Amino acid sequence: MPLVRPFRCFNTRLIGIALLVAFAIIACAWVGRGLPLRSPPRVLAAAVQAAAFAWLVLEMIRSVRALDELERRIHADALAGAAGLIVVAIGCWGFLVKAGLPEVEWSLWIRPMLSITWSLGVAWISRRYR
Predict the structure, then answer these.
(1) Helix axes of 12-33 and 40-65: crossing angle, nearest 10 degrees
(2) CA distance linking residue 92 with residue 27, whole number of Å
(3) How far apart are CA 114 and CA 102, in angstroms?
(4) Measured between alpha carbons, how far is 56 from 20 in angstroms, rounded to an integer?
(5) What is residue 130's predicted lDDT score, i.e. its pLDDT?
(6) Is 118 exposed, middle or buried (0-12, 13-18, 19+ CB in 10 A)?
(7) Looking at the predicted structure, is the pLDDT value of residue 2 above 70?
(8) Cα–Cα distance measured from residue 58 to residue 33, given in angstroms and rounded to the nearest whole number
(9) Which 8-state DSSP code applies to residue 66?
(10) From CA 115, how far away is CA 120, in angstroms rounded?
(11) Rounded to the nearest 5 degrees, what angle is found at the Cα of 28, between the Cα atoms of 86 and 115?
């Protein structure tokens, strides 16, 4: 059986793009904080953040698509599992909020949760192919 390396899609090019996108998002957030809500410059800063994030997601998809069939399958299974876990976590937390626990700003937590659970899923699923 050939060597399975599902994390090879996260090469230096993609990591560089991720760092550039992170810098752009943080810089636009910092600039936008001082601007009035719904002002054109603040909306433009948010649009730049959205475009940078979309670019990163598209590059990640492109990078995963360059993998072989087994490695793509590992990523697909891991991403499906991560999405399922996150849907369950958000749904369950909704019930707990109704019981009096504090609300969570999911727009802040969804990306790190997805990244972590996806990565753990890839590592766990790829173990069976070693």
Answers:
(1) 170
(2) 34
(3) 21
(4) 9
(5) 77
(6) buried
(7) no
(8) 27
(9) T
(10) 9
(11) 20
The residue with tokens 């719904």 is 38
Closest C-alpha to 73, from 64, 86, 85: 64
Q: Quick one: how far is CA 79 from the chain centroid?
A: 10
What value, to the nearest 5°, has the Cα angle with vertex 63 and ends 80 and 65?
A: 60
The amino acid sitting at 49 is Q
Count of beta carbons in the 10 Å neighbourhood of residue 84:
11
Is there a contact between 11 and 60 (Cβ–Cβ < 8 Å)? no
Asked if residue 123 has pLDDT above 90, the reply is yes
Q: Is this model's pTM higher than 0.90 or not?
A: no
Task: List b or e across 19-33, with b for residues whose CB sees 16 or more CB atoms inside 10 angstroms.
Answer: eebeebbeebeeebe
> Helices (DSSP H) in 2-126: which residue ranges?
12-33, 40-65, 69-98, 106-126
State pLDDT tens for residues 46-99. 999 999 999 999 999 999 999 999 999 999 999 999 999 999 999 999 999 999
- Is 1 a residue whose pLDDT tops 60? no
Residue reference for tokens 């997601």: 57
Q: Under a CB-based contact definition with an 8 Å cutoff, are residues 64 and 75 in contact?
A: yes
